[in-house]
From TrEMBL:
Coiled-coil blocks: none
Descriptive protein name: Nephrocystin 3-like N-terminal domain-containing protein
Domain Nephrocystin 3-like N-terminal: 421-585
Record's keyword terms, sorted: Repeat
Signal peptide coordinates: none
Top-rank taxon, per record: Eukaryota
Protein species of origin: Glutinoglossum americanum
């Protein structure tokens, strides 16, 4: 049996339900004993059972070995990403792992009492789903299991595990981690009752970045896209952030560790989370807007952490370098008013700030205080959110009726693909600023295929939404795509402009003209005609201080069925009331429509500096 100075916990999945806990524990213990080699002594171990949060036909166990681990599990110590399958009894296959990937429920809730909330803890980059929350004291308590099971027995408390190891060859970026999290949470909140259960998050470091990304995405989801993800924001009542680097963190020492391999796949992720990362700054702006009515507690570290340093004696990297603040205070707090964000300093470094040795720990008492407040207040508030959603939302109903095209989702998907800093040259240019501040201006970006025009459009739309979110400014975009020509009909494209104006700018009530048109068609279950959409669009535009319309790949807008001609006709009719930006390939018919507009030539967008050549100035659409 291998020896160890500290106990190691394994997760066992696939255990049967319907038997007594004692019987399951006995069978598991017997299975482990049966797998020992001849020269091994009986291990010192404790077994704790819990429900499987994603499969009600099985349960799980947390098995802790105190004096050493059996040889048959040793490969999981050397390679924590591995699993070990074995058979328990005559027909039950079980699996041991140390990685804890996906969701793991830590304890059974109190029998006979309804579950009041779900608590989900997301670990740090290069952390461990279970071990990162475990104290360093003699008893090595894991507070999410050992303390919350006593103090919050009616909450379903789960940890979320993912491949966070920095030296892994994973190519995942923030978007990939977000997608993985959303896919996994569908498995544990898959019924209406579960989806509408209050949700509290506890996020350490990078885990908070994943969470913020997912909540931003969830707000953009409709129930028809996925009911679990669409409900995520409404169900979220409160979040405890521990050292989350909302504005990035120092990664120089990590880069040094990976420097031997300039093409190491983790370098791309490090660029995304570097201090003052453009990607994080943009995400932060979106996130702050959607959590203003949520309960936020931000814990920040006041002790420093040693840098990673190469140890030539052990031939390994360890934290033996100079002291640094891993996540500084400015990055760890959202800078919301004190009534919206509780800010708490912790006398610990970045790793130790989530390790509580006892229930008497001041940091634990603070965390528990707010979790208990959440548990007390959340049920009514979260229930009211879903009740209000159950009443048909007229704005949403009319928007879906106007057009089946979802350019808002397309905008989000394209924006995800950009590299940090891409397109900044355009946003900083005098030409763009003139277009932004002027009236009835047209900006035409002409470029060859593959020059990056679509990403450029997504950056401009995102910039407009960030800049004018509190003002009576209309913003709409169209992503023309030849592959979608069947759906991108004239009525759908024009209707989509109107749809976005009422979706994005919710400060204005639905106009009487649009409401009347909808009611007239709703009675006979018909959709608006092209002329009706055009008429209402012209009226709607006049309700705004300014309207920006951004169109990508106009050359891909269908020409043979008249869609492009009709779209250009509508834009021409609106030229005195909108600011228009269009991208396209060089095309004689399109050039004829922009007589007097000297194009901005987009030769190619280098994702580092965005090289361009610029020709001409801005003019009105003729």
């Amino acid at each position: 049996m291998g020896t160890s100075n500290k106990s190691i916990v394994f997760r066992v999945t696939g255990l049967p339900v319907g038997e007594t806990d004692d019987d399951v524990k006995s069978a598991l213990s017997k299975t482990i004993t049966g797998l020992l080699s001849k020269d091994e002594m009986q291990p010192e171990m404790t077994i704790a059972l819990a429900p499987s949060c994603d499969d009600d036909k099985t349960s799980i166990a947390l098995v802790e070995f105190g004096s050493g681990i059996p040889h048959f599990l040793s490969p999981l110590v050397g390679d924590p990403l591995k699993d070990r399958q074995c058979q328990m009894g005559s027909d039950t296959d079980i699996t041991f792992d140390r990685h804890f990937f996906g969701f793991t429920q830590l304890y059974a809730t109190e029998p006979g009492h309804p579950v009041t909330a779900d608590i989900i803890a997301i670990t740090e980059l290069d952390g461990h789903a279970y071990g990162s929350w475990r104290g360093k004291g003699i008893l090595r308590r894991m507070w999410l299991r050992d303390f919350l099971s006593k103090d919050m027995p009616h909450c379903r408390t789960m940890i979320y595990g993912y491949n966070s190891k920095l030296k892994s060859l994973e190519i995942s970026k923030i978007m990939d981690y977000g997608r993985e999290f959303m896919e996994e949470i569908k498995k544990v909140r898959y019924t209406k009752e579960l989806r509408e259960r209050p949700l509290f998050f506890i996020a350490h470091g990078f885990g908070g970045i994943i969470l913020a990304h997912c909540l931003v995405k969830a707000v953009q989801m409709n129930k028809d896209d996925d009911p679990t993800i669409a409900a995520l924001h409404k169900a979220t009542y409160g979040i405890l952030f521990f050292g989350t680097p909302h504005k990035g963190l120092m990664v120089d020492d990590i880069k040094s560790m990976l420097a031997a391999d300039a093409d190491h796949p983790r370098n791309a992720l490090l660029e995304q989370i570097n201090l003052k990362s453009d990607l994080l700054i943009d995400q932060l702006a979106d996130f702050k807007n959607l959590i203003r009515d949520r309960k936020i507690v931000s814990f920040y570290e006041t002790e420093q952490t040693r840098r990673l340093k190469w140890d030539p004696k052990d031939q390994s990297w360890s934290r033996g370098g100079d002291y640094i603040t891993a996540v500084d205070t400015d990055s760890a707090i959202l800078q919301l008013p004190d009534l919206m964000e509780i800010k708490i300093p912790l006398h610990a470094n970045h790793s130790q700030m989530v390790k509580f040795d006892s229930r008497g720990s001041q940091a634990y008492k603070s965390a528990l205080q707010y979790l208990r407040q959440y548990e007390r207040d959340a049920p009514k508030i979260v229930s009211d959110r879903f009740l209000s959603q159950a009443v048909p939302n007229l704005r949403h109903t009319i928007a879906d009726w106007l057009s089946p095209l979802n350019f808002i989702q397309k905008q989000s998907d394209v924006l995800d693909r950009r590299h940090p800093g891409t397109g900044q040259w355009l946003l900083d240019s005098d030409m763009f600023r003139d277009w932004l501040s002027g009236a009835e201006q047209t900006l035409w970006c002409r470029g060859i295929p593959g020059a990056g025009k679509t990403v450029l459009v997504s950056i401009v739309v995102d910039h407009l939404r960030q800049k004018f979110q509190e003002e009576k400014i209309g913003i709409a975009c169209i992503y023309c795509d030849y592959k979608d020509r069947i759906e991108q009909t004239p009525v759908n494209v024009i209707g989509s402009l109107l749809k976005q104006l009422i979706q994005v700018q919710k400060q204005l009530p639905i106009s009487e003209e649009l409401n009347t048109l909808y009611k007239r068609h709703e009675r006979v279950k018909t959709r608006p005609t092209l002329d009706e959409c055009s008429k209402v669009l012209r009226s709607e535009v006049r309700r705004y201080t300014k309207v920006f319309v951004v169109i990508d790949a106009l050359d891909e807008c269908p020409e043979d069925d008249g869609t492009r001609a009709r779209l250009l006709k509508e834009l021409g009719a609106l030229k005195d009331t909108i600011n228009l930006m269009v991208t396209s390939r060089p095309h004689i018919n399109i050039e004829n429509e922009f007589v007097g507009v000297k194009p901005l030539e987009v030769l190619a967008i280098n994702e580092d500096d965005g090289d361009i050549s610029v020709g001409g100035s801005l003019a009105h659409l003729d």
